[in-house]
Amino acid sequence: MALELAHENIWFDKWRVDDAERQFYETKSSASHAGGSIGSQGSADVLNRLTKLESQNSVLTKTVSALEKTVIQLTKRLDSLDHGGKTTVSATTSTSTPVQNNKQAEEDDDDDEVDLFGSDDDEEEDEAAAKVREQRLKAYAEKKSKKPGPIAKSSVLLDCKPWDDETDMGVMEKEIRKIEMDGLIWGAAKLVPLAYGIQKLSILCTVEDEKVSIDDLSEKIQEIEDYVQSVDIAAFNKV
């Protein structure tokens, strides 16, 4: 009996193979289910993203359209400003009734009253205001130029030399002080020794620069020939 069994093809460990086969197919089945769930989840994410992108694209399209309309309106407004800021109303045909003409005239009046961009009257008012301002500035400048400024004066010390030691210096001073000029004021005087008993008369005077010339004053003093030999400017200071 044992010999007969030995020659028979008998699979004693078949249960192990069956278990292994069952585990293989179970593992394969679970993997396919997992892959299917992952694939479906990925498809849902893609659809959600596409939907969101389409919504955003729609919003952007509406925004761009609104911006284009705004740009067109601004361009038209700038064109109207360049042409004087007035809207023209087309003239009615010769066959229109008087009622329509009156209505158009009223609309024109309304347009003139609601002139947002200015008018010729405004420009004329601006020009008139500018002229008035210029006239006031001109009058102010003239008034300021006529306003007297500080009088420029100078203090001059003159050395008047006699001919000799016999010249009467007192008389010389009296003759010099007789000289009168507008803007000339005589001041103090003193005798200063020169040499060999000769003295010179140092006399101070204050003059207005615009009225009195020192050269003219020196010439007038030198015209007193009986007493004065020469005149020198010893000092000259602005007051």
Key traits:
239 residues, 6 helices, 4 strands, 57% helix
* Topology as a string of helices (H) and strands (E): HHHHEHEEHE
Rounded to the nearest angstrom, the distance between the terminal CA atoms is 163 Å
Largest sheet: 4 strands, antiparallel
Runs in which pLDDT lies below 50 for 5 or more consecutive residues are 88-99
User: Could you say which overall geometry the principal axes of the C-alpha atoms support?
Assistant: elongated
Physical arrangement of strands within the biggest beta sheet: 2-3-1-4
| Overall pLDDT | 77
Secondary structure tally, helices: 6
Helix/strand-derived category reads alpha+beta
Report on the architecture of this protein.
There is one protein chain. The protein has 239 residues and is α+β, with helices and mostly antiparallel strands. Helices cover 57% and strands 17% of the residues. The protein has a 4-stranded antiparallel β-sheet with strand order 2-3-1-4, covered by helices on one side. The longest helix is centred in the first third of the chain and has 69 residues, at 14-82. Residues 88-99 have low confidence and may be disordered.
Concise account of the structure shown:
The chain has 239 residues and is of the alpha+beta class.
